[in-house]
Amino acid sequence: MVEEKMELNHFMNYLGFKITKIEAGNIEGSLKIEPQHRQQIGFIHGGVIATLADLVAGFAAYTLVGNKQTVVTAELKISYLNPGVGDTAFCRGFVLKAGQKLIFSEAEIFANNDNKEVLIAKASGTFAVIDVPA
Amino acid sequence: MVEEKMELNHFMNYLGFKITKIEAGNIEGSLKIEPQHRQQIGFIHGGVIATLADLVAGFAAYTLVGNKQTVVTAELKISYLNPGVGDTAFCRGFVLKAGQKLIFSEAEIFANNDNKEVLIAKASGTFAVIDVPA
Amino acid sequence: MVEEKMELNHFMNYLGFKITKIEAGNIEGSLKIEPQHRQQIGFIHGGVIATLADLVAGFAAYTLVGNKQTVVTAELKISYLNPGVGDTAFCRGFVLKAGQKLIFSEAEIFANNDNKEVLIAKASGTFAVIDVPA
Amino acid sequence: MVEEKMELNHFMNYLGFKITKIEAGNIEGSLKIEPQHRQQIGFIHGGVIATLADLVAGFAAYTLVGNKQTVVTAELKISYLNPGVGDTAFCRGFVLKAGQKLIFSEAEIFANNDNKEVLIAKASGTFAVIDVPA
User: Fold this and answer.
1) C126 and A75: CB-CB below 8 Å?
2) CA trace torsion A115, A120, A124, A127 (10° rounding)
3) ipTM confidence
4) How far is residue C45's CA from residue C29's CA, in Å, rounded to a whole number?
5) What are the helix (H) ranges across A8-131?
6) Contact yes or no for C92/C56 (Cβ under 8 A)
7) What is residue D2's predicted lDDT score, i.e. its pLDDT?
8) CA-to-CA distance for A84 and B18, rounded, in angstroms?
9) What pairing do the DSSP bridges indicate for beta strands C69-80 and C26-32?
10) Region D121-133 average pLDDT
């Protein structure tokens, strides 16, 4: 179900993001950083990082809802801990609390540079559970 | 200065974002929504909205720093108020408080659909003032 | 209804917070700053400011729900723009978007010092609409 | 140093908060919940929880700054995961990244009810490092 949803997500495909692990309440994925993902001084753009955070925190929430339900992001906060230096971004989303109406989850984004992994951002989001529009 | 910085921002150009107004502490811009900006049910992707928020809130902060300074996003929170339905996103960034070290600014993102403008997201961010890396 | 709810809020009464205006989607109130509201260098404590933000943003949301409904805070973010110097805090909560399940509102907290009013904090929150527990 | 700072924090003492563990980058503490800490339906007030989050996340940051430096909260976001039911709140603050100018830390707040510990809130904050005012 998550895989199907992924294939239909145009912006995710456009960026080139790949999901590498799907478990109940946990998602992992990665993005090969290309020139278009960078800002003016060569770091990974904050908007790319926010997008990755939204994707993995949201998909982690989505793994826990019912058959005819989906989630929408109510709000997301991203803290930019370290400069986004590197050629690959690796990210992880996980659920803190899954309620009937709201799911709270977090995301960690790492950049991989010369085989060192650095936590570049941490995010927390609130996701509303809704019925799939017919 | 802001215009020069804009031209060097690869991810912004990749998305197709255009800045339409630059004043001290205020930035406006717009994005024509293309298929790649949407998620699986056709709404503007949350990551696109977060990127717009980061761009205009950050550029608004940037208009207020010194010649050899720039800003980096310390954190950004986005509230998704309404579904991103529409063909154009219009956005506005403005500074709440500009300190020597930190600048606080906000962003509003509107979607334009059939000549009606709807506030689809509101964001607040903290930007650190840094010296331009040599 | 809001007034009744207020009287039952122990922590609010303990702090000494007074609501001064109640309109649909808008709340105003004030707090006389006493020594116990301050931190170690004499500024209004961040926790007091967060409490004021939660109260006015939450009550503003509460003015828009049904008879047998109430709101609970899902999340709240506070930006501390200026030091909390002053003898009175004045605050304002207002709704950005009221949905069936979620209400988004904001709060502004001002400190009043020598007849000058300074915006010391800005907050945004997400409030879940729930049925009043029986 | 942290202990000295604590004793001078009026609002913390007023609430009755006790710090139980101080390590570099880590703080733990607890609060016995009294009637004045509750809101109208008997749960721990969101403002009390925000205050605890600010205290432990901020003190955790403070353990890592220089002799003549202190920290001020730039912003704080709190997610309210579960109702604050219980007689004791226990909380933990820890640093994610300590920079020269900004320290990012998080806080977890648990409520203790009938010997069960429930995570009631999770917070993330940005703290600015400043020189101690003379």
Assistant:
1) yes
2) -60
3) 0.93
4) 17
5) 10-15, 46-62
6) yes
7) 66
8) 24
9) unpaired
10) 95
- The verdict on a CB contact (< 8 Å) between D96 and A126 is no
What per-residue string of b and e applies to D11-42 under the rule 16 or more CB within 10 Å gives b? bbebbebebeebeeebbbbbbebeebbbbbee
Chain D residues at the A interface, defined by Cβ less than 8 Å, are: 77, 79, 81-82, 96-97, 104, 106, 119, 122, 124, 126
List of chain C residues whose C-beta atoms are within 8 Å of the C-beta of residue D83 = 72
Domains delineated in chain D = 2-131 (3.10.129.10)
For residue C1, pLDDT over 80 is answered with no
CA distance D120 to A104: 12
Burial of residue B132 (CB within 10 Å: 0-12, 13-18, 19+) is: exposed
What DSSP designation does D61 have? H
Instruction: Kindly report the nearest CA distance between residue C78 and chain B, in angstroms.
Output: 10
Q: Which amino acid is at A24?
A: A
Neighbours of chain C (3+ CB pairs under 8 A): A, B, D
Of residues D120, D58, D51, the one with CA closest to residue D88: D120
Residue with tokens 């009287």: C7
Strand partners, D69: D131
Give chain B positions within 8 Å (CB) of D102: 74, 128
Q: What is the rounded distance in angstroms from the CA atom of residue A55 to the CA atom of residue A51?
A: 6
Annotate B48-112 with three-state secondary structure.
Answer: HHHHHHHHHHHHHHHCCCCCCEEEEEEEEEEEECCCCCCCEEEEEEEEEEECCCEEEEEEEEEEE
Per DSSP, the three-state class of D134 is coil
Supply A127's token pair. Answer: 């996701």
- A2 phi and psi, to 5 degrees? -65, -40
In the A/C pair of chains, how many CB contacts fall below 8 A?
A: 17
- The closest alpha carbon to C79, from A62, B33, A31, B122, belongs to B122
Look up residue A117 and give its amino acid: E
- pLDDT-derived band of residue D132, with 50, 70 and 90 as boundaries? confident
Question: What residue ranges of chain A have pLDDT lower than 50?
Answer: none
Distance CA D60, CA D5 (A): 12
Rounded CA separation D8/D10 (Å): 6
Residue C3 scores a pLDDT above 80: no
Q: What is the pLDDT of residues C47-75, one digit of tens each?
A: 999 999 999 999 999 999 999 999 999 99
**With contact defined as beta carbons under 8 Å apart, do B131 and B68 qualify?**
yes
- What pLDDT does B1 receive? 65
* Confidence at residue C45, expressed as pLDDT on a 0 to 100 scale: 92
Q: Identify whether the C-beta of residue D11 lies closer than 8 Å to the C-beta of residue C45.
A: yes
